[in-house]
Amino acid sequence: MFALASFLGFLGGGFVTSTHELSAASKGTVVRATRFELVSPDGKPLAYWGEQDHDVVLAFTQRHGKERAVLGLDSANLPFLTLAGTDGSDRATLRLGWCQRPILAMEDENRTGRVLLGFLASDAPSVEEENWGLALGAPALWHGLASIGYFRDVDGKRRGFAGGFDEKGGHWIASLDHSDSGK
Q1: Is pLDDT at 180 greater than 50 in this prediction?
Q2: What is the pTM of this model?
Q3: Is residue 121 part of a domain?
Q4: What total of structural domains would you count in the chain?
Q5: What is the tens place of the pLDDT at every residue in 31-44?
Q6: Is residue 35 part of a domain?
Q7: How far is CA 13 from the centre of its chain?
């Protein structure tokens, strides 16, 4: 009987303690830290929330510690999402770029740009610039190897374009003046 009473007392004490901890957390207790980590039962990092290279990120890692998905704010407080392959190299990035205009970029396993969708900034972009489109091939150059989109010319007219480029500098570009469309 004494053993049963002791056991029930132990369970009751555990219940009161855990209930007290939950109610303290539910009352808005603030926990402050520079980094939070989620680890597996064997101590391997699975995710973290904190600062990384002046960016604030929520990063999910594989068991070997390589980041696979990162959501965050960069040093200019612009949001981004980066997805990496199993080798840890970036494969897709969605971010707000110049003048907070969105960009979706995709790379291959060699970190070679393959697809760029969104704002296609020129060498010296301005606030008035409107180069939007899809560039395929090597988006480090805004036109890529093949591209389609629209831009605003020096006269302020919007023009659609489609183009193709080869690696030797040869190219073709077709452009349409939107103010003349329908004629």
Answers
A1: no
A2: 0.71
A3: yes
A4: 2
A5: 889 999 999 898 88
A6: yes
A7: 46
β-partners of residue 70 are 59, 82
Instruction: Give residue 115's domain range.
Output: 97-183
Of the pLDDT bands very low, low, confident and very high (cuts 50, 70, 90), residue 176 is: low
Measured from the Cβ of residue 61, the count of other Cβ atoms closer than 10 Å reads: 20
**What CA–CA distance (Å, rounded) separates 179 from 151?**
13
Give yes or no for a contact between 116 and 135, defined as CB atoms under 8 angstroms apart: yes
- 19 phi-psi bin (left φ>0, alpha ψ -120 to 50, beta other): alpha
Q: What is the pLDDT at residue 140? A: 53
Residue 128, pLDDT score: 78
Contact 84, 71 (CB under 8 A): no
